[in-house]
Amino acid sequence: MNKILVKGGNTLKGKIKVGAAKNSVLPIIAATLLSDKKCTFTDVPLLNDVYVITDVLKSLGADVNIDPATCKLEICCNNILSLEPSPDLVGKMRASFLVMGPLLARYGRVRISLPGGCNIGTRPIDLHLKGLSTLGAEIETGYGFVEAKCTRLRGANVYLDFPSVGATENIMVAACLAEGETIIQNAAEEPEIVDLANFLNSIGCKVTGAGSDSIKIEGVESLNETNHIFIPDRIEAGTFMVASAITGGDVVVENVVPDHIRPVIAKLQEAGVQVLEGHNKVRVISNGVISPVDIKTLPYPGFPTDMQSQLMALMSIANGTSIFTETVFENRFMHVNEFRRMGADIKIDGRLSIVKGSSVLTGADVKATDLRAGAALILAGLFAKGETTISDIYHIERGYVDIVGKLQGIGANIEKIKV
């Protein structure tokens, strides 16, 4: 079993590069099922989740080729043999459910098990099913499976009760082969939605309005080949920015779209951290003196729930009290108990966490309870006195490519160890 060992106290300095956005890569790979033409991708992050979603496609009959040396990925779905992805694979990762939309749209039928993923709260699929049903799908659920059928999907107006990213993606992709025009209202506005729309348009779909709360899709009859480059990972960028802030560092984070991380930049500046924006990069300079800030997670363009635990690590050393309000997932404070092991003073009241900052955190044996919580524990360990050992790091490796090596490159005393 692998663990991550962090020895705190080093000031981080230098340059660190962000990879492609995991939350763009996964839905776009799933969307290749729409077409029988080859899709080529460069600079693909070699994450566990990427291998899982490509294995899902392979289980359906897709031809998938990943070159680890060049990080190039080629997918051709011209010989799909099954419309029921492996339940074992779908159970590993929630994003696997995104194959439902393209399979239904292209073949008129799909049977899929209920999805897995990080245990951060209830993430129902009802909005996915409601949207596909509005497009004309007949849907049955039971025994842990969902089955959907149609002759051909028909364009319609779909209103989402909540701007769900996954539901927006599934419905948007399915609508690309539907007859007529589809409008998704109260759609998710995340940059990853825009990236997916850009990919869809590159293969011949007609999607407009992505990035706003109203997306229009005109159904098409045929699709073509494409080459696509993914957007940078804004959550990875934010994680490295906090790493600089919590260690009193001076770090240039490269391959960043500053507009995608505007809420993180604003909160770091409010905390007294200097953030200088450049072309596709940000420089984060901290003197180690952190002012408390309040955080309320919201759908984009609000503060991202995926950065909540990282900012909580930073606020645990602030000069004062911060209040965190989690509005997206009801079970996303599991990392609090792990922070407490390191000496953090945090109390939970429902969806609120009250963080009393302290100048002292101490190393401890802790566990990554989910992907982002694991990254936050690394951040806390970078500051803490002594050694922090983090277990269950498979969560971390689902979303960060070589986070240990990247942090070592800017001066962190961190290593992966075998126990």
From TrEMBL:
Residues 6-407 form the Enolpyruvate transferase domain. It catalyses: phosphoenolpyruvate + UDP-N-acetyl-alpha-D-glucosamine = UDP-N-acetyl-3-O-(1-carboxyvinyl)-alpha-D-glucosamine + phosphate. Its EC number is 2.5.1.7. The active site is at C118 (proton donor). It holds the Pfam family EPSP_synthase. HAMAP family: MurA. This is UDP-N-acetylglucosamine 1-carboxyvinyltransferase.
